[in-house]
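note to self — DONT lose this again. spent like an hour looking for the file last time. sequence + predicted structure for the chain T wanted, 259 res
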Amino acid sequence: MKKYQQIELKESQLEDLIRTGAELIEGGLKYVDHQKVTDKGRMDVLMVDSDKVIVVAELKINEDDDMLFQGFDYYDYVSTNIEAFARIYKDFEIDPMTSIRLMLIAPSFSQTLINRCKWIDAKISLFMFKCIKFEGSDEIVPVFSEIDIPPRPAPIEEKYTIPRHVQYIKSSEVRKILDSLITDLPNWKKDKILIEPIKYSISVKVGGKVFMYLSPRRDKFLVETYNPEGKWVGYSVNSSDDLNGLLDIMKGSMEKKSK
């Protein structure tokens, strides 16, 4: 096996290597242009992949977290002017209807940058490179390896429960009042009352129709229902007296919805 040594490059040398050997990075990748002037500065390298999608490549010869943000400046410029790029580089048959890609090429990437990429809704590819020179040869050979971007963690599925809503209230006295009301509600109209938790409230239905929401707050709960005039109103409940004063309104709303 031939001996070789790893060598360091200037960014312009890296550009030259990519210009002549884009396929070494990814099969079917073709060089299009480099140092294209934009309103954000000069874009390092522009390529097109095997699916005729434009690839904006940002290059660094040292690990640099800022390259992600810099790359997105050029990504934004090309995305905004995609039809113009498709016309200018018509020989590459660029598909202007497909989202473009951002490719970052550097000798290494921090875990911070890699983690940021997983939260971005864009096509991002990370390629590490090293350049070697074999003994007895002046040829510089670039070696590229793709870094996997980890998937986003699965979203936590929120589970809404009546006890959880009730426990949101700090006052034990108010919690007891709400608990007592929830226990009593099914007796208002046998087999026709449905009580179920939703995101921020407890929904109360009669015959499948909502006639009231019970919405916990830290020091009280709201009874949201129709007043005698048919207007949707929220009433604060801090005590048993507050609730007793609302019972006729709540039951009246239920009767109207059950007809």
